[in-house]
Amino acid sequence: MPQRALSVLCLLFLSYSSSLFAESFTLPIWKEEAEARGYDLPEAFGLNVSYMKQTQDISVDSVGFEGTYPIDLGWFGKHNVPLGDVVQIEPVGTGKQMSEVLTLRGDVWLFPFLNLYGIVGTLNGYSETTIKVKPLKSDALSRNMPFRLELDGTLYGAGIVLAGGYKDVFALVDASYTETELNVIDGTISSIVVSPRIGYDFTRFGAPLRLWIGAMYQDVEQSLSGNLTDIGLTGSLGNLVGAVDDGRFNVEQHLVAPWNPLIGMQYKIHDRLYLLGEAGLGDRKSLFLTVDMRF
Question: How many domains does the chain have?
Fold first, then answer.
């Protein structure tokens, strides 16, 4: 397990263990004042397991291949030339990205309006677009071909939640920073996610249910690179790459739509157990499910 992911996992454990000492002090701070004003606060410490699946459009800024390609010069033997002198690669249109994320999150309400959390998990998914392959050393025509990258790795990060409300109406902003260390592809994916929400609490009507609407902003840096032999290129491009011993790829891409709307709900099964579901609409489709345990 990567060292940073292990550190986050330890943070989650410490967050859970801290609940054992809650009797010596009261969390969140100003709990009594908030409850005196009529607010129903959850238990201070939490541990939850979440699953999220999302699909969205991506724009590929550039695709580059590096390495040397052997050319047979007859009596003069073989000569290695840069791969970029043999074939030109260009992205075509927009692509698609799908990801599934399973996470473990530990959190604490430090104040009634401020929650801090750490998160660790796994990511599985792919990024797929179309590239135009143009041979430079022959009269062959350029061809459009699929180009797919498997995005699997370990995710870790931290975030904060700012919350407030008036009577049965509540609002909150969730902001987090995560990094995903990829397994096959070199480098990391860095993500900043900010999600404002506003909703209504139906508890006083006899239903332990909260409903809300909101939006999600994602700022994702994706500079991906790795060995050409690891990404399973097929056809004529695969044959070309198969002759390159030191071939590598470099991809720069970004999300097409940084914002998308959200709708969600939370149902309280018990004072210490909650179920949460949220769906993303618009250009980014997502489904988010959580089981939250409070201590």
Answer: 1
